[in-house]
Amino acid sequence: VQLQASGGGLVQAGESLRLSCTASRNTNAFFMAWYRQAPGQQRQMVASISPGGHLNYADSVKGRFTISRNNARNSVYLEMNSLKPEDTAVYYCSMARGSMMYWGQGIQVTVSS
């Protein structure tokens, strides 16, 4: 399984970015999530969406980020608004089901102050 992420870049504080991630297989039964890892820090979950559409967010992004999925396109998205410098990190998409977990390549998001 391959996950292809796109949409990262350099923005100023307060601006928005939309990350996209498309899988090479059907995603209907998988938990989809976005993680991020800042320099010197551990990878942490940013947002997740269950097969049934249940959403979960890290406290630091609640109210600013929105995760969504389109199973017809085997895709998951992360809409990021009101970006802050502390959102700067490498972002990873993932899909998981039981013991299976797959990761996309990391994409850089940099927010300048």
Percent of residues in helices: under 10%
Q: Give me the oligomer status.
A: single chain
Low-pLDDT ranges: none
Query: Outline, from the CA principal axes?
Result: globular
Largest sheet: number of strands, sense, barrel closure: 7 strands, mixed
**Tally of individual helices:** 0
Strand content: over 45%
**Number of DSSP strand runs:** 11
In short:
It contains no helices and eleven strands.
Keywords:
four-stranded antiparallel beta sheet, mainly beta, 11 strands
Could you explain the architecture of this structure?
The protein is mainly beta and 113 residues long. It is 0% helix and 55% strand. It is globular and about 40 Å long.
Secondary structure layout plus pairing:
Elements: E1 3-6, E2 9-12, E3 17-23, E4 31-37, E5 44-49, E6 55-57, E7 65-70, E8 75-80, E9 89-97, E10 100-103, E11 107-112
Parallel strand pairs: 2-11
Antiparallel strand pairs: 1-3, 3-8, 4-5, 4-9, 5-6, 7-8, 9-10, 9-11
